[in-house]
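Structure (tokenized):
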């Protein structure tokens, strides 16, 4: 990717923000994860291949290194997502306490046909994710960065209904 292309993806304002962000870390590359969060937030809610390449160039890394970091974490998206993202944990503790039913309820309430898809109105994306570290309070989901734990199906439906029309 050329500098011209990188600047098209990373605006001068965003580049300045990432430069400032990186200045708070002992090594520039240590700011990669917060930079990916910021780019995803600023540039449409997902990390396109162009954004990943621009970040690689900015941090003087290989694109595969940036992709490797981004693909490890469930909070980074590689395709457009809904305004609201529902990440349902399905690891062992959540699974044993009803995660599959919770995923089905989340899809039903949001209008998503299946996990990994976005509702036809573009409001919700429901994702099946690995352990979120709240095993003692299973089952759970993360809605737009807020954990909801010890969920019943009725609780989940109420929370998701309340999110309809609410700003993410």
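Design, position by position:
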């Amino acid at each position: 990717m050329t500098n011209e292309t990188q600047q098209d993806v990373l605006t001068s304002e965003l580049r300045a923000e990432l430069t400032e962000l990186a200045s708070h870390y002992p090594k520039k590359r240590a700011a990669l994860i917060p930079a990916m969060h910021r780019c995803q937030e600023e540039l449409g809610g997902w990390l396109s291949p162009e954004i990943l390449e621009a970040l690689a160039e900015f941090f003087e890394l290989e694109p595969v290194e940036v992709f490797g970091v981004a693909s490890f974490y469930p909070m980074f998206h590689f395709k457009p997502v809904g305004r609201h993202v529902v990440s349902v944990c399905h690891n062992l503790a959540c699974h044993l306490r009803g995660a599959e039913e919770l995923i089905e309820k989340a899809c039903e309430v949001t209008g998503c046909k299946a996990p990994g898809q976005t509702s036809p109105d573009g409001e919700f994306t429901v994702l099946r994710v690995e352990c979120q570290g709240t095993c003692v309070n299973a089952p759970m989901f993360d809605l737009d960065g807020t954990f909801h734990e010890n969920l019943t199906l009725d609780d989940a439906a109420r929370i998701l209904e309340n999110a309809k029309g609410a700003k993410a």
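Reviewer-requested clarification: The chain is about 45% helix and 10% strand. Residues 3-72 form a domain with the Arc Repressor Mutant, subunit A fold (CATH 1.10.10.1590).
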